[in-house]
Amino acid sequence: MTMHDLVIRGGSIYDGSGGEPFQADVAIDGNIISIVGDVQGSGTEEIDANGKIVTPGFIDIHTHYDGQVTWSERLVPSSQHGSTTVLMGNCGVGFAPCRPEDRQELLNVMEGVEDIPQVVMAEGVPWQWESFPEYLDFLSSRVADVDFATQVPHAPVRIHVMGKRGVEREPATDAELVEMTRLVAEGVRAGAFGVSTSRSMGHRGADGELAPTVTAEEKELLALARGLREAGAGVFQLLPGAHEGKDPVKEMDLLRRLVAESGGRPLSFTLLNTNQFPDNLDKTLALLSEVAAEGLPIKAQVFPRGVGVLFGLDASFHPFRFHPSYRAIEHLPLADRVAALRKPAMRAQLLSEKPEHSHSTYLYFMAQTPELFPLGDPPNYEPAPSSKLSALAAAKGVSVHELAYDMMLEQDGNALFLLPASNFVDGTLEPVRKMMEHENALISLGDGGAHYGMICDSSYTSFLLSYWTRDRTQGPRIPLAKAVRALSRTNAEAIGLFDRGLITTGLKADINIIDLDRLKLRPPHMISDLPAGGRRLVQDAEGYVATIKNGIVTYRDGVPTGALPGRLLRNPNINVEAKMLHETMQ
């Protein structure tokens, strides 16, 4: 009788195609799925999946593990929630290319944009590279619990070419644009999956200054796109500005020109719904339908719940984080801060103060205290308006800040508040459903590896499966087969990976076995496992029976096995003729 390395018995197969589920066994040999059907042979290891669903491993296409992958072998939180492949280097920020004298500038940008403390990066990032190909060569020596791929980020390219002028957002010269094109093409030929940038005014360095890419002229963005054309491969990812009030028509016209300049390479952009400019969502979706009808490869990355900025005494933000009296005790351990804040005199003093900081985005968040919701256990990501702090305070006859102060000290200072910073307009996720159901939508934006002390959104895969397909009562749900396809095959195809994302013979043995009835999220909590003793939020999920990466079990019942079968992925779609021509010209 044939012996297989691993056999999954009797599960309900959601194969990633979007089709109806079917009962079957799955045999794995090496890192490949060898049989889907009635497996007669035995497995060296067998997993009973009766009553469980079996899905492809999820593809998380919007992460920021650029630093974490250099010091950690577990790409948590993504790997905790069924992701087996991640794409980093998004939003134009990263660590290569980089000369030694420019390292501090990149750390400043990454700290401000992605909330990664500089002390963590200073100790954790080894800087054993200068060029982007050298960065990839370093990553090729790393192992992880998932496969990881990256893109060429705009900010390091700009600073590498322009130095201080790039940091100060001066216009690039024609010669500098040519060099940017060369660097993008070089990175993609070496294995990068594309190029990324950001036009968001909210993206600022730790000093409060705009990130280097934000005000770049169109000709500079076109120069990046030409790098994809020259390499004959890669995708373009960017964060545009329609959610901040920029004209959606002009933004989409820019995306069209970028696709044309890249030679028709795929492009995806972040699509958010905000309270400040809610009408821009429908306008953008209509424009997205137009480009879909024209066959242009432009897709929107959407997030399946409110982008969750978490406030708490042990998080990066809380309502009194930048009050002068709090700054005097912020260095203390949590228990000591709680003790100090419970003193009536301290309470009175803090409630009389106002936040002070040079970073306008930070001050914006401090002004959002009335909009906070208690997160709860289990976490509630579609809370009723009556549970907002402003409503709770009015019902109690106290000020919002008095209530926030007292609630912040609950659970020994571990209580968390949720600020749905976008995608929760009018207190409903219905606009999010509209975004997710668009034919050119990609479900992503978990931001794993970033926002360590304020956002823990890589759990979106578990949320999509548990809430949107099973638990939601405030409106229509999403079919499970469609949700699985969105998390697997759709995202794989979007970045040019065709060897995974489906449960079918001959493809990568990246698989999740999930007890859907038990699947649920726990509240995020803080752990201290970063370099220099840095801390970060993680979020556990119940219901994952097993996660399999390259044929090897990496998680059992939500607990890591210690196996590290993940490796660097280099772009498999490089235009061979273009690469050979380039090498001949060198």
What is the secondary structure topology, with strand pairs?
Blueprint: E1 3-13, E2 22-29, E3 32-37, E4 42-48, E5 53-56, E6 58-60, H1 68-71, E7 83-87, H2 103-114, H3 118-124, H4 132-139, E8 147-149, E9 152-153, H5 154-162, H6 164-167, H7 174-190, E10 194-198, H8 218-231, E11 235-239, H9 248-261, E12 267-270, H10 279-293, E13 298-302, E14 308-311, H11 324-327, H12 334-341, H13 344-352, H14 360-366, E15 373-374, H15 389-396, H16 400-408, H17 410-413, E16 417-420, H18 430-436, E17 441-443, H19 460-471, H20 480-487, H21 489-494, E18 511-514, E19 520-521, E20 525-527, E21 536-538, E22 541-542, E23 544-549, E24 552-556, E25 559-560, H22 576-585
Parallel strand pairs: 1-4, 1-5, 6-7, 7-8, 9-10, 10-11, 11-12, 12-13, 13-17
Antiparallel strand pairs: 1-2, 2-3, 5-18, 14-16, 15-16, 18-23, 19-22, 20-21, 23-24, 24-25
Helix pairs in contact: 5-7, 7-8, 8-9, 9-10, 15-16, 19-20
Radius of gyration: 24 Å
**Percentage of residues in strands:** 15-25%
Provide mean pLDDT, rounded. Answer: 95
Overall strand count: 25
Outline the biggest β-sheet: 9 strands, mixed
Helix content: 25-40%
- How many helices? The count is 22
Q: Judging from the principal axes of the Cα atoms, what is the shape? A: globular
Q: Which structural class do the helices and strands define?
A: alpha/beta
Pick out the low-confidence regions. 576-582
| First-to-last CA distance | 55 Å
